[in-house]
Amino acid sequence: MKGANLLAIDQGTTSTRAILFSSAGDVLAMRQKELKLHYPHKGWVEQDPVDIWNDTLWACSEVLRKGDAAAIGIANQRETAILWDRKTGRPVYNAIVWQDRRTAPLCEKLRATGHEDRVRARTGLLLDPYFSGTKISWILDNVEGVRKRAENGDIAFGTVDTWLLWNLTGGKVHATDATNASRTLMFNIRTQQWDDDLLRILNIPRAVLPEVKDNAADFGTETVLGKSLKIGGMAGDQQAALIGQACFNEGMVKSTYGTGCFALMNIGDEFRESKNRLLTTPAYRFDGKTTYAIEGSIFIAGAAVQWLRDSLKLFADARESEGIAASVHDSNGVYFVPAFTGLGAPYWNPHARASISGLTRESSAAHIVRAALEAQAYQTMDLMEAMKADTGRTPEVIRADGGLVANGFVCQFIADMLDIAVEVPRVTETTALGSAYLAGLQVGVYSGLDDVGKSWAAARRFDPHMDPQTRTGLYGGWRSAVQSVVHSAGK
Question: pTM to 2 decimals?
Fold first, then answer.
């Protein structure tokens, strides 16, 4: 099957895409549709699962008009939770998105009763509304009749990958992969099993859970596209990007700048609990063998640029932000902490809210735009400092991807602040590409990870040029701005 094309589904927070790749990783066709987010209450973020599925079906159907595929791979926004009726296939409630903060009180209650150490030791995660488990508990407790039906086995849970797989296979397959399962607060990443103690803590019946498979595995055959394609690969979006960036050696780092920013460092086949409030997570699992990563999760990256565009109307197109930022020599002391949905790693403060500080009469729209872009480097620096403390490693290069890497100012400022070279790959659709690689591994398009790694190549490289004194001063200002936000949140 060498040389065959592969269909990738990249279902993200703000859009759904289907991409047809050649075996060399070239994009042959792509269709995309924006996905609406709903904000029914302060701190709540939801999506319509039916919209997610319909958009996926449309995008896949359109792409397959351009050519055939040997198999399908799925990458997805990870912690978004969906429950549906097994008989009708209808969701019992909207999808609760990973950005949603409604379960902060439950997380605080579980933390106060001493459960976080057990959760961290088994899942590599912290008790935060970010993860799926407390979202499931909320739906079970707040949607009439659902808990009883769940206990009777009539309700299925899934992250977005599982929801798409269920629909692609006409309800025949209820499964997920190790990377998505690991983000639920219910999956023991040491034993690679659903954990009964954690299910008890969260009061979630085992009957709702999907089967957990390797990342490259037989996930069944699609029945709705008219092609009978094998579904051979599945991974959460950030792990898919790690695979798409060919970060297969210990110490390699990829950082994705999409809606949020997520940096993962490959740490090999030994589980190591973070001591610096990062997450330990499966990077990928093949043939039952797990490779782990240390992850730093930042909730808002490109979404800050969208806010400047859509809410403040500072520009009409996100691409304009690069020129606006470069039109001023610096941010004039302005710092933008984009904590719109709380602070992620390494702070983990769901109560924090965004701030723009350091404003004076000389401050302009350009300074605010520049500060928002600079924040991506500062947030990444927070993660790299914690990763270094955890692993003793500083990467030689960061492989960067996501929509924001089209912005040369952002990439150069990241390189300058981290004092680490940033490489942007030839194929920037790394999340989708990673899922295509997984499907290709399953059906024999690729012989192994070495075969996959051969296709990776850098298109652009940004080397650091900032002097250490300037770097130290800028980062000190950022740390002060963040601490002010944390203090205002009362934590």
Answer: 0.91
